[in-house]
Amino acid sequence: MSKFQTVKKICGCAFLASIVSCTNVPAADKSKLESPISESKKLEMKFSSLLGKSGNEIVTELKISSNDCSLTDEPPMVLRGASFKYENGYITLYIAEGENLFRKFFLNGPKPTCSEILNSKVGGIQLMQNGKNIWVGAAVPFQWRI
Question: Could you tell me the CA-to-CA distances from 125 to 27, 77, 97, 139 in Å, in that order?
Answer without folding.
Answer: 36, 20, 13, 8
